[in-house]
Amino acid sequence: MGLLLTGGSVFDGHRYRGAASVLLDGARVVAVGDRADLRERDGRAREVDCAGGLVAPGFVDAHVHVAQGGLERLRCDLSESATAEECLAAIAAYAGRLAPGDWLLGGGWSMASFPGGTPTAEAMDGVTGDRPAFLPNRDHHGAWVNSAALRAAGITRDTPDPADGRIERDADGHPTGTLHEGAMALVGDLVSETTDDELYDGLLAGQRYLHSLGVTGWQDAIIGDYAGMMDPGPSYRRAVENGTLTADVVGALWWDRNRGLSQLPELLARRQVLSSGRFRATSVKIMQDGVAENFTAAMLHPYLDRCGHATDNRGHSFLPAADLRAAVQALAEEDFQVHVHAIGDRGIREALDALDGAKPVRHHIAHVQVVHPDDVRRFAELGVAANLQALWACADDQMTELTLPFLGPQRSSWQYPFKDLQRAGARLVAGSDWPVSSPDPLQAIHVAVNRVAHGDEAEPFLPEQALDLESAFAAYTSGSAWINHRDDAGVLEPDAVADVVLLDRDPFAGAPEEVGATRAVQTWVSGVEL
Ligand SMILES: [Zn+2]
Fold first, then answer.
1. C-alpha of residue 429 to centroid of ligand 1, in Å
2. Between 192 and 459, where is the model more confident?
3. 122 and 8 in one domain?
4. What is the percent of the chain with per-residue pLDDT over 70, rounded to a whole number?
5. Which residue did the predictor score with more confidence, 227 or 406?
């Protein structure tokens, strides 16, 4: 059944084509062109009036955690709550839907919503009453709990901090309701495990949400057991078997940093078992460092303290450089793509060193926050793609309060150097890291071109690193499809897969400051309207 999208303009995955029409035939694109010409090719195609909107290839998110994000949406979802008041209102509303005694679970709050980044049990008790609550924040490095949860876990003034974490306390040592890092487990371990059915429902809820934002494919950045989160691999398997997986997905199998090369046979077996239908477990995820906000991103030089003096902390490389290189090279030999998490300038350099000379399987480094200027050109030289979470490239509170003071001015200016990477010939791909941050591609594209969040009055952050709109769209479409080894997706051209999004306006025709006001109105996957 032919479909003719008319009355709008077109971005084809690489270029903005202005006013144009798109003809689809079942699961494939027939052509982009003039309405009358396309009509001649298929006189019976059903016509859709795009009303001045933009037709683009479906977005592909190159780094996302969909089952986890979906699960949070099904529970108490604080990711859209911008203030402490909004969080408490959302918790109160959700608590009203639970049976008496049920744990209140969910999360996604932002540290910036609370003084010192540490919300209190006392504040939450007013809306939860006696039911225990456990709510990790959006980067999962801390959790907010209420008094019932503290009681259930037996956490008192006398409870020592665990070796790998910290209990937030008042001046008298009484726990106040925020648990940092490893201390989260004191309460987290009491929460009954997510069931297979819940995780599967989370995957489908996440998929529905991403489709509503025009996302038609993605790379799931952790398939495996990691930090107490459940492995979404079986849920994908079940979705393929049930015919409910409508997105095209590559899964990145989790590299257990404690097991070295001995896990290779297992990864090969998992690739075999899990890959079927629209899901391919053909990537391996290696986390090489942490995050800058808690000083675990691996840096070439030490972090500064609050007064600007050098500390003795250079962050943390999870794998020694030689082990990282051995892993990367062995994986590439087996035709695994390697997907490295690297944020600090040392972490990124170690990742590039490890990938130097590896069999080219479209490897990528995600996050690329602090890139030493000497390393910028190496992405293109080594054929390694830069996987951008463009939404982060702005001067939000996390950046100004928790990052800039501790990096100092020079390294701060090396952050998210999208334009330099592009100028040096690097391949750019894009993703959200949802549920760490919003999965709406248009918000990320907005920041990529403006270096400030949509609607935010702040000064643009390193505006010389802004991308043009075509490049930002290309990264989120053809770029990310390339990283997923789909050369027939992320583009609108003859024989490409008919994964298409219609936006409510043409951001190329409007002001750059308004890109973020654009909304997806309709999404097709393989020609099927969702
Ligand atoms: Zn991630």
1. 14
2. 459
3. no
4. 100
5. 406
> ∠ at Cα 498 (493, 504), nearest 5°?
95
Under DSSP, the state recorded for 350 is: H
Question: If you measure from the C-alpha of residue 163 to the centroid of ligand 1, how many angstroms do you get, rounded to a whole number?
Answer: 25
pLDDT, tens digit, 9 for 90 and up, residues 54-86: 999 999 999 999 999 999 899 999 988 989 999
Residues 455 and 507 in one domain: no
Instruction: Tell me the residue range of the domain where 48 lies.
Output: 3-58+493-529
Measure 372 CA to ligand 1 centroid, in angstroms: 22
Distance from the alpha carbon of residue 431 to the mean position of ligand 1, in angstroms? 9
* pLDDT for 360 beyond 70: yes
Domain boundary among 188, 215, 235: 188
Distance 226 CA to ligand 1 centre (A): 11
H/E segment holding residue 16: strand 16-25
Do 41 and 108 share a domain, yes or no? Answer: no
User: 332 C-alpha to center of ligand 1: Å?
Assistant: 21
Helix axes 264-274, 233-242, angle to 10 degrees: 20
Contact 284, 253 (CB under 8 A): yes
Q: Which residues have a beta carbon within 5 Å of ligand 1, which is an ion?
A: 221, 433
Distance in Å, CA 173 to ligand 1 centroid: 34
Q: What span, in angstroms and rounded, lies between the C-alpha atoms of 10 and 57?
A: 9
pLDDT at 228 over 80: no
User: How far away, in angstroms, is 292 Cα from ligand 1 center?
Assistant: 14
253 and 386 together in one domain: yes
Domain count, the chain: 3
Does residue 121 sit within a domain?
yes
**Do 26 and 124 share a domain, yes or no?**
no
CATH code, domain carrying 502:
2.30.40.10
Could you check whether the bond before residue 435 is cis, i.e. omega within 30 degrees of 0?
yes
48's tokens: 């859709």
| Position 216 in a domain | no
Let me know if residue 294 belongs to a domain: no
Task: Give me ligand 1 centre to Cα 12, in Å.
Answer: 28
Burial class (CB in 10 A: 0-12, 13-18, 19+), 240: middle
174: in domain: yes
